[in-house]
Amino acid sequence: MKFDLTSLAGAKLALAFALSPAVANAQAITPAESAQIDRIVASSLASTGVPSASVAIVRGGEIVFAKAYGKQSETRPVASADLPYQIASVSKQFTAAAMLLLEDEGKLNLDDKVSKYLPDISGGDRIALRQLLSHTSGLQDYWPQDYSFADMAKPTTPQGIADRWAKKPLDFEPGTQWQYSNTGYVVAGMIVEKVAGMPLLDFLDQRIFKPLGIKAISQDLAIGPAYPQGYQRFALGPVRVEKPAAPGWLYAAGELSMSARDLAKWDIARMNRRLLPAEDWAEQETPVRLPDGSTNGYGLGVVTGTIDGRRIVEHSGEAVGFLSENIVYPDQKAAVVVLVNADFSDAFTNIAQQVTKVVLPAPVDTANAATTAAARKLFDQLRTGTLDRSLMTGNANYYFTPVALGDYQSSLGPLGVPKTFELARRPRLRGGFVNRNYRVTYPSGRTLNVVTYSEQGANGRFEQFLVQPAE
User: Fold this and answer.
1) What mean pLDDT do residues 401-420 have?
2) pLDDT tens digits, 305-323
3) 367 falls in which pLDDT band (50, 70, 90)?
4) Considering 31, 56, 113, 211, which has the largest number of Cβ atoms within 10 A of its Cβ?
5) How many Cβ atoms sit within 10 Å of the Cβ of residue 395?
6) Is 18 exposed, middle or buried (0-12, 13-18, 19+ CB in 10 A)?
7) pTM for the whole structure
8) Backbone dihedral region of 432: left (phi > 0), alpha (psi from -120 to 50 degrees) or beta?
9) Which uninterrupted H or E stretch holds 462?
10) HSE-up of residue 156 (Cα within 13 Å, Cβ side)
């Protein structure tokens, strides 16, 4: 059970649905992009041993891609994008949404104390409901391991988990620290059921899944020949079928199974502020802050942050034999869902990151485009021996003696024309100059680093231009 921002697993299958005119207006995936996604997934599955992956993509607020790859089980030779994978901790945002809906109805308040609903929980008179959802309750996590521990071979119940872990002494005073706690979500689910007067999954089905056209089931029922099978791997050994956990262990902390496409429908609802009031979505996405003002970006069942300057809402999940990544770009009306049937390797996040680059290419850095072009121009002059000294300050001209120029040309010239010349990190000020470092790659695989300092401003001259070998 995990969340991951990075942060954010070949096979053959056609697109699982035909693009409608509405989808076409939402920047449909092109054949070239589809082929690139196929290569990304196939490469990841081949290099990691992960048996299968199911991918869904939202662009322009519409689902434009849904496809499954690889071996979903020992009895299913052809993958289907319609099959539900265990999404594990991605389920937490649904539990949080259920509690927000009940608050809207006046049936509870997120600032209520746990003891109002469950009297026997440790610290229940000091733990607010929202602290269960933000992992700041102090309740000890019952499943910190990344494997199925011994007791998970036997069935349990939410009450069984609460009796064993939610009645231990608190790990810290509520609200003073952040610590991921599946236990807190089990307690939250029990409260939802008590207030709603029905099982959590029934409440979610009635209030969220059916209105959005989502088919979701308990992972305890998503077992057998009709469903994807979980796999494990010990170090670099053979990939083996994973034995599912006994019933009852995931519950409100991560019990849901659904297809990547269905999870994408929820992401679209988030983008459009549909189903839940807009203030509920905003509250879920507001990071909790500790008394010292710090935050790690976690809100109520989701992680918020930025990637390449874009706002994200994200959560990952880990079940027995399954990993999942769900990342939403609300401002771009885009989302990437990656579900895999293996609980080893980082294929699920790597696929998501690479697919995102296809769906949302990195924004053009106009602020640094001109300076990168200037650096590339000077690099080409040095490798060809045609230096324009007006591009450099007096100190840089002093550095480039005839010996230095000769060595630059004789060592760089034979390498030929670089394949790429890219800014390696964000610019920073030092000594009144702007430091920019570049990465140079050649078709041969050779890589160089270029460390520069230049005067501030669009036409600033170079104070330093050093070319160095790289690993």
Assistant:
1) 95
2) 998 889 999 999 999 999 9
3) low
4) 56
5) 12
6) exposed
7) 0.77
8) left
9) strand 462-469
10) 19
